[in-house]
Amino acid sequence: MAPKKRIEESEEEVLDSQAESSTSFISDISNNSNSSNKRLRLNDEGESVVPLFTGEIARQPEDGYLYGSIVRVQLKNFVTYDFVEFFPGPNLNMIVGPNGTGKSTIVCAIALGLGWNTSLLGRAKEISDFIKHGADIAEIEIELKCPEKNVVINRKIKKENNSTPWKINGQKATHREVNKRIAELNIQVDNLCQFLPQDKVNEFAQLSPSELLIQTQKAVGERNLIEYHQKLIKLREEEKSLLMSSKADREQMENLEKRNSVLERDVMRFQQREAILKNVRLFEMKIPYARYSVAKDEYTEAKKEYQSAHAHYNSLIQENEPVKHRREELEKAEKTSSLERKNLYDQYVKTTRQIELCANKLEQMKQIRLLKRDEKERNKRIARLQAEIAELESIVNGPPPAIDTSGIQRRLEQVDNRIRELRNSVDELQLKQEEHVDVRNNFLLQRENFIKELRQIVDVTERRLRSIQQIDHATFQGYQWVQTNKSSFRKEVLLPWLTINIRDMQYVDVIESALNMGTIKTFVCQTKEDYQTLTREVVDRLRIRINVVCFDHKQMNDFYPPVPSGQLRDYGFDCYVLDQIEGPEAVLIAICQMSGIHSIPIAKNDIDHRLVESSRKFKNYFVGDTLFKISWSRYGQKLAQSMTSRIKPASLLRDSIDVEQKQQLEHRLRNIDLKLEEVERVLRDFNEEESTSRREFDELRGRRENLVEERRKAQAALKNFERQKLTLETTKVNLQNELSKPSSTIDNGQKLKQELRQIARKRAQLFLEYKETLDEGIKLFSTRNLAALKHYQITAEIHALVRETQEKDDSVREARRLFTIADTLLKERKEKAKKLYEIAENAIKDLSDEEKVEFQELTKGMSLDELEEALANEKAKADLHYATNPQVIQQYNERLAEIRNLKSRVESLDTRLAELSSEMKTTRENWEPKLNQLVTQISQRFSESFERIGCAGEVRISTHEDYDKWGIEILVRFRDNEQLHVLTAQRQSGGERSVSTIMYLMSLQELAKAPFRVVDEINQGMDPRNERLVHSQMVETACRPNTSQYFLITPKLLPDLEYHDRMKILCINNGEWIPEKIDYKGYIQNKIQSKGT
């Protein structure tokens, strides 16, 4: 049930929606009666109410507020407040109220409302965590005093998207614009000297002297004071770095010079030998040029010979040109004559063939002789056939050869039967093999699929590693170094980011939020030696910023949950965060030690939060997507305070391995491998059996071939006998055919005679045609002979002309031969000169311009022989100087170059150091006097404040050669028998530290450049005497004219404290039992009367 609270209202209007809800009420009490009358008014029922702020506050220019002071604060739905508005005074404001009523909430509102983030407060991280439970939007409005018109800064906080829109004087603004406006008013909420929240009080007491100096300069020093200090720190850091570099460079330079001095004699000999070798190289480079020069002269001479031979050859060609022309004419006439002769010869041949045809027809009568010749041939064939028959009958009439092949056939059948058996056996084996091969292929396919699935699961590590490289490069570099140097460690170095796995991915957001980034990227060493190795090599030597831990003294049994896992259900929880994480034991120990996940429970559904709070077992727990943090007050009833924050979606551990699926796949893969081994064994047996059968099959096939050959040889004689019988029958048939042919010589002769009688009449005609054709042939023969004579004449003339020009042709051929030789020689010498030129150019292409000049001067005017002689002399000189190890010279030159670089660098460093020294001197002269003056003023006020409470105090500057180690030391003495001692958290008590802190802050009050200060519960832990004295000092200091505004938050006050007209007391009445309306006027009158009595 939400507490009932009072709301401020005006006479004219009441907040419509907020008035009906539970609200807060802050009353102000001032010793200034006029101010009180203005603040408090009575309604019709006689009750006092605070008027609602309705616009610009009417204040006189002399109202006492410094520019930047807070004149009004209004909160809506902020932490414990539904609605509240109050008006601080210009000087000391004391905000009082019991614990848990929301005093520190006002401090949070001032800090957040003026643009600072939640980290300043040391409380919740998310801004949305400051929204009151049950609301969606919170609002902070702060009015600041300004010269012309006050500045009203409004900030809304939205839970939906964690956004915070800003307004300045009702107009939308950006966070940067707000910060700029705040800075213009010199408000420094992040300075503990100006703004000291409750959770930062101990932090202020633990400030180092150097940190206190920085904060003090920001709070009360001139603006350029801190700038001078920061500049000196930066310059000193640079000076130290340069001094170290200069010292190292000088030492290195001296070391190198000493080492090089030992090698100077060898270097001198080496340089002398190098000079000789350089001349050798120059002579060797010049020799190709000399050879090229000789080749070039030879080429010029060959060119002249070529030109002479070419001119002689052309002159002979011109002299032979008329004879050549006459020869061409004769050769053309010879071709024409030859063609005519050929045509006449073809006609003559054709005529001759016609004459032969007629002659053949006349020779037909001679066929009778041919018939008689055929009859003689027939008689010869008959005699031959008869002789062959007689010979064959002598062979066939004898007995046939006796052959028994039954034994061979029987053995052959046995071999064939065994071959068939083997074939059947091999076929069966092949079928079985094919079946098992199919089974093996099926297993291999399944195995490949399992491996792919397993690789996809295991690939999570690779994806996480890529995320490390993108998100945190330093951690990635550290991991790479660890992987490269595994042998340097006794045990494996583990990285939670890569080694932990989430059992149930529905909890991934919770787990990542519980572990946080720092824990996930921490390297876990399992031995102290490995821890020292990793930090020494990576952190110290390589300067890679990584987190490294080692908890080898811890075991998992050391981490007890607040409630046994079996009893978590009683509180509505499902499990602990640790229950959902698996990984190496060393990693689990580390994350339990760093993040306490063994004591953080998780619930998917809503739980009874009151039961959890009342149990006081759990400080942190997760419900759904919300983190709950419980803290208990250290005062009074030690009530519980719960803070909630929405967890962000996971991004680092989103990729995780399904362990159950991975185990199933690995089990299936092992079974597949076993089955594959069995199938492979069976296939090997089948292959061996098949090989044995095939060897036997090859042996049987050889035996069968031998048996078949043996049977063939046995049957060959019988086949030959049968063939002779068949040949005898064929020969007899041929003899019978010859004998049966009739003798037709007489008949054919009679037939021819009849035919001759029939053509006798044509014979006379044929003779006439023959005579005409013969005459034509004689005429053609005569014409052909004339053409041949003409051709022979032309040919003879050509031969005579050839003989006549033979001597000239020989001269031309000789000239051509000489020309060809000259041309070939010219090309050879040109190619030779070209190659020698390329060699010479390549030899000097890498020479510098200076070396080329030296090259020309050294070899100027020397012939090839002189160069070769000089080269031999220089080589002989080089042989007299023994060769120095080139590595020694290389080391000498490298050191010499390094010495030059070091000298140049040292000179640059010295120049820069001189500049730095001058700049630091100037800056220090501007800074130190002002700082001494400031600290002297602070020390004077601090000492006076301590003297008033019967103690002693002093503030002084502690100097150091490093400006970042300059600091402010607070020295205090609380007892007469003591000396002044530096204020530390170890020597003084908590109350003494509080007194010292408030006194120091009050010493800054009059010097402050800030318009207001906030101190939260600084008086806690003081004894009544010190608290009363400190309060008196605070009232005196803070209520002086023209001092900055002061806020003191405290849960309690001593009675009868000293008050001042300029101080204001803001009482927080915020709780479950506050009545709706309070008669403050009557309450005050009653208190006055009770004191009067």
Automatic annotation (TrEMBL):
Keyword Oxidoreductase: no
Spans through the membrane: none
Biased composition (Low complexity): 21-30
A GO term from the CC aspect: nucleus
Organism superkingdom: Eukaryota
RecF/RecN/SMC N-terminal domain location: 70-1050
Region Disordered, residue ranges: 1-30
One biological process term in Gene Ontology: double-strand break repair via homologous recombination
GO molecular function: ATP binding; single-stranded DNA binding
Pfam families in the record: SMC_N (PF02463)
Coiled-coil ranges from the UniProt annotation: 246-273, 368-471, 662-738, 830-926
Protein keywords: ATP-binding, Chromosome, Coiled coil, Nucleotide-binding, Nucleus
Compartment annotation: Chromosome; Nucleus
Xref: PANTHER family: STRUCTURAL MAINTENANCE OF CHROMOSOMES PROTEIN 5
Family: Belongs to the SMC family. SMC5 subfamily.
Stated name of the protein: Structural maintenance of chromosomes protein 5
Naturally occurring in which organism (per UniProt): Ambispora leptoticha
